[in-house]
User: Fold these one by one.
Assistant:
Number 1:
Amino acid sequence: MGSHRSLAPSGRRRAPAGFDRGAAALCALSAAAAALGGAPAHAAPRTDARAEVDRLYTEAERATQAYDRAEERTDALRREVRYAQDRVARRQQDVNALREELGSLAGAQYRSGGVDPAVELLFSDDPDEYLDRASTLDRIDAQEAGRLRRLRSALRELDQERAEAATKLAALERGRRAVAAHKRTVEGKLARARQLLNSLPAADRVAYGRSSRSAGPGRLDLPALTGAPGVRAAMALAAVRSALGRPYVWGANGPTGFDCSGLMQWAYAHAGIQLPRTSQEQRFAGRQVPLSEARPGDLVVYRSDASHVAMYVGHGQVIHAPYPGAAVRYDPVGMMPVSSVTRP
């Protein structure tokens, strides 16, 4: 909000008459509020700071899921590039072997009285030219023609393999740039959030760490369900409980640290189920059920953009990796808006 008053020039000056300590404190409070996000002087700076931290953590979590997705795709492209390069190398070996055979043939013909005109064409830049003109030559035999056809085929396949490898390499480079961009976004938002948290009094920082970040209905009284979870769900539950207390680490999927979707992927890997990497993909990694029918082991996905995920453990509770600076912990299933429940 702009001010219509002229600011006094900087420097040491005597306070004007009537400017008491209370006015000085009010000015300091206004400056602090502005530093915490441009809030007007009448806003509560601590509340504004905590709300801004919530917003930054939420945005960082969305960027983390984008980072996870880009990293997963980049890893897949790396494997494809290695495979493509292996194919190119094998195809090059085939071409070299065929050229060596034909070179030996040319040497033998030279020693026996000169190089066959057909073999001379072998050393042109375009082997297709040989085959296109071979029908006009009366000294080519079936063996020579067969070898050169194989060479032409091998060269064409080599060119195709090289083109595919180049395309995958270009995609890999784009993926690397996307990963780097998402990483910068996450790190920037987390740095701003830490700066704001550090500006709060110690008691407020502790209180923030104990509270849930996002507004939601809080504890939901879900109906009691009969029967134990399935074997695989029970194994995933045991794994996620074993992770309690381990730190949130963005972009990590265990075993020493986790982001929200990385924890779910890691837990279900212990049950022999390979979940996708991101919360958006995990949302569709099974059968969706109503929240009222949630069973232990189900994945609870939050927000309309599915940017957070937790595991339902029963009695209205979930286990999840909340945000940087917090450990894997229990929270009420209604800690933030639920968008879906998935049973892997």
Number 2:
Amino acid sequence: MPVKKVQPDKLPQRVVNGHLLYSHVVVTTGQNFAFISGQLARAKDGSIVGPKDMRAQIKQVGENLKAALESVGATLSDLVKTTTFVTDIDEFFKHVDVRHDYLGVGLPASTTVEVRRLSHPDLMVEIEAVALLDR
């Protein structure tokens, strides 16, 4: 098996609203990876989608991640690691269902960090990712 997702018995499992949020450990061997730059809630024309609307922004970031993955022949299920930056972590966790619609598919290893600001004051979430190719 090229990917093994591990939930160690000695570590807590983070569950919000019935959704397991991430895998603690993802192991791969002899594979190729795609490293996806931080995706923001921007439409193709560069405009901000859902200014100051965390739910709309999580959805747009998920769509942007899908598009980035598709461009290299991968899908959300190929994600092995994400790092999420949010400007309001409490607001972010109110929308776990939307995040789960995208990241729950692959349940990658994940880190979420609250930051003071992203590259524009209307942006609230940014996700960078690593995906396994050629599964």
